[in-house]
Amino acid sequence: MADVLPYTDADPSVAELLATHPHLKMDVHSGLMLEGVPLNAIADAVGTPCWVIGGNTLRSRMHRMQSAMQQAGLDVAIHYAVKANDHLAILSLLRAEGFGADIVSGGELARAIKAGMPAERIVFSGVGKTDAELEQAIGLGVGQINVESAEELDVISAIAQKLGRTATITLRVNPDVDAKTHAKITTGLAANKFGIPFHDAASLYAHAASLPGIRAVGFSTHIGSQILSTAPYRAAYARIAELVQTVRAAGQTVEVIDCGGGLGISYRNEPEGQPEALAGAIKAELGHLNVRLAIEPGRWPIGPAGVLLGSVILHKARGNEAPFLVLDTAMNDLLRPSMYDAWHGIVPLSAHEAALPAAHAHVVGPVCESGDTFARDRLLPPMQRGSRIAILDTGAYGAVMSSTYNSRPLAAEVLVDNGTWQVIRSRQTVEELWQDEIVPSHLAGTV
């Protein structure tokens, strides 16, 4: 099961991690390189902590997913899940490659539009869309709104009428299927807050067809994230196919099925989710229905494309116990290990250090929380004060979940593309931490 500890087998070595990350290479002179660019050179210029994203890795993975669908004979619209990494440079890169966007907030909608995404290639998901966000989306003419409840459907109808527009919608169906992933990232069980209960979907779809300002075109489903097996997908899609046949038999039209996202990656040594297998599951369960199809990948294309660079502040010895490697990188930068007990590979930037015999160490951050821990009893080459490391597979749900907890400025972000690199977000200054804060006049003398 993804993101769940403890593991019982040995940690993969540095060499084993690099073997499963073809965009990363260890050069004997330059150290760890991403898409041919030395990460030490970036750290020298920008400092650490620092996020680095490989543009060509992202492109190739998105196109592999597109090719998998095409080779299965499926015409599938691909909408990148913006929540995975919402930087304007990332969205602009994907827009230039012809992909759309799946958004879950008005802020993400504004980002997608700012990056040049056509509104008609944007899908609006999410369980709690505000009236203002829906007005924004309907006014812009987004391609599809995935409706999560009967109550939301009525709100959309009223807003569309007020604006004199027609909102194209699907009903997001909760198929009550266990995705076998971490409890905090599963979304397709009846106990989860997401979607319309399966047994209510047919009647609500008929109701949607009667509402003014609504054009109901089909169904959507999304059962979770970091899914490594196609079995949950097939179970969910089989239920959606059953639903389509039911509503068609009742005289309703179904044109679209949005298959969601959630395909998992290999953080440790688990087999990565395969786009070709996902395409096979879609074709097997939905290929006979004569509908337009869509998917919403996020983690799978961009997760492996990113690394988080950090430096060792202290090597804190503890006698015969495993030492603490205290990094300048913390849970406010990368929350996943603290939030999900997530496992991320850790690789030295130095080729010399990477080749040394490994020993157990605890890798922690400087934040005043015991949960500020990246790895416990991890087998790593010995590293000392000033050593640099890369935390792997942090392109998704990394920078986008960062905070300034402990008044720690947001880290710089860098895009590597076609053999060169560029800063795409400057490191936040300490003064910028409070630039929007207002001190009441009667307290101003104390600041």
UniProtKB/TrEMBL annotation:
* GO process terms (BP): lysine biosynthetic process via diaminopimelate
Alphabetized InterPro entries for the sequence: Ala_racemase/Decarboxylase_C (IPR009006), DAP_deCOOHase_LysA (IPR002986), De-COase2_CS (IPR022657), De-COase2_N (IPR022644), De-COase2_pyr-phos_BS (IPR022653), Orn/DAP/Arg_de-COase (IPR000183), PLP-binding_barrel (IPR029066)
Broad EC category: lyase
Q: Which residues form the Orn/DAP/Arg decarboxylase 2 N-terminal domain?
A: 58-300
Q: Which cofactor does it need?
A: pyridoxal 5'-phosphate
Pathway listed for it is: Amino-acid biosynthesis; L-lysine biosynthesis via DAP pathway; L-lysine from DL-2,6-diaminopimelate: step 1/1
Q: Which residues carry this modification: N6-(pyridoxal phosphate)lysine?
A: 83
Report the domain of life of the source organism.
Bacteria
Question: PROSITE patterns from the entry?
Answer: ODR_DC_2_1, ODR_DC_2_2
A Gene Ontology molecular function term of the record:
pyridoxal phosphate binding
Swiss-Prot/TrEMBL keywords: Amino-acid biosynthesis, Decarboxylase, Lyase, Lysine biosynthesis, Pyridoxal phosphate
| Amino-acid biosynthesis among keywords | yes
Q: At which positions is pyridoxal 5'-phosphate bound?
A: 262, 296-299, 397
EC annotation from Swiss-Prot or TrEMBL: 4.1.1.20
Which Pfam families has this protein been placed in? Orn_Arg_deC_N
Instruction: Name the job this protein performs.
Output: Specifically catalyzes the decarboxylation of meso-diaminopimelate (meso-DAP) to L-lysine.
Family (UniProt): Belongs to the Orn/Lys/Arg decarboxylase class-II family. LysA subfamily.
The protein's name is Diaminopimelate decarboxylase
The lineage, from the top, is: Bacteria, Pseudomonadati, Pseudomonadota, Alphaproteobacteria, Acetobacterales
Task: Name the gene for this chain.
Answer: lysA
